[in-house]
């Protein structure tokens, strides 16, 4: 194993930093992962590294793949560091625990050579393709929940495959590789989504099968019958890496890393045991391998992820910029716990082995960890996709059951006020959402034309016509306009 010295050159050992004790040169490439970002490196890559360190599964190393133009930076950093990077656990008291991870044994950049990516996936050694391409990256129609063939990039990939050229998008790359595996008799593999979506495996199945069917009907049938798509629940708060994180590594440990990953100590992965070509013994390193992931998915998406949305917009409007600042505010903490107890929890199924009250206590403690320094801007990214997946299912179930929706409606009102593009002091709020232009226009129209914001059926469906929800939304929004976020939250705490 080699470590970075102060010059950026890989040399022997650094005291106090855990490094891989296994021979990386002998590790196979059983997993191809598309979307190598912070979360992947703090989660799946970490679990595989731990398994390799335990002496298990030398054939399950990871070949990372970048498909976006912006992934060239990850390509360059990993190339300079021989695929190694530092994972840093950040405790609430400021303690840092670094560990060098070695499970990424290769990296391919699709814009440079899509054919190399296709052949890597088609290779007999590859048995799992995993994904972290964000919630909004799947070609799904938000109104119907079905595959959307007009999603950006899908038609281009299909046209490329029809012309005998290599596709460049994630779905086209995998489908073309599956076609070659079928033609060559290599056999199916498993597509494993690690994105934050209810039924993430089911969503992946619809998209990949849909693309395969459009490429070739027989291929589509083979994918539907032979390829497996396990559902999973993934959990670890992983903020964006800051320059101060790099400086802390260099100053406190003498370790220079071009792109370390920082995260909270907590981690959880619940995974459905449904694999077409085998899998690593994830149980050995703490993964919960189960028959039914759904209860755990609901718990995480509707408590952790939806509560992130609850604190993100309203907290930002109130003047906070970090998650821990909001969670440490007693009024906000009471509001968040009220949402979890009164609105989210009634929609959950029983979760085997989980004490929900203790889980909710732990969530608030995790949010309040100042060491993580997670920004509200990060968790507010991709609002239209995240609100739709995390919060609105709670609203719909509560409306059907006659339950309360006032806090959830206030969260949506907070997003509307945030989407106007200026905070309570008139400072600009950058909008980072695929529907930013549309939602900002509707948010600004809401002041003169009530109902404008909720009229976007692609996000809200028919919720805008529900008098109880629309009324609670408008009441909260008027309070945000006239009295501000802090007072509005206090009323609902």
TrEMBL record:
TM ranges: none
Catalytic activity field: D-mannitol 1-phosphate + NAD(+) = beta-D-fructose 6-phosphate + NADH + H(+)
Record keywords: NAD, Oxidoreductase
GO molecular function: mannitol-1-phosphate 5-dehydrogenase activity
Catalytic activity, EC: 1.1.1.17
A Pfam match: Mannitol_dh_C
Domain Mannitol dehydrogenase N-terminal: start-end pairs: 30-283
Enzyme class: oxidoreductase
InterPro entries hit by this protein: 6-PGluconate_DH-like_C_sf (IPR008927), 6PGD_dom2 (IPR013328), Mannitol_DH (IPR000669), Mannitol_DH/Oxidoreductase (IPR050988), Mannitol_DH_C (IPR013118), Mannitol_DH_CS (IPR023027), Mannitol_DH_N (IPR013131), NAD(P)-bd_dom_sf (IPR036291)
Entries under Gene3D superfamilies matching the protein: N-(1-d-carboxylethyl)-l-norvaline Dehydrogenase, domain 2, NAD(P)-binding Rossmann-like Domain
Homology family: Belongs to the mannitol dehydrogenase family. UxuB subfamily.
Native species: Pseudonocardia alni
Any single GO BP term: mannitol metabolic process
Domain Mannitol dehydrogenase C-terminal: 292-481
Record-given protein name: Mannitol-1-phosphate 5-dehydrogenase
Top-level taxon of the source organism: Bacteria
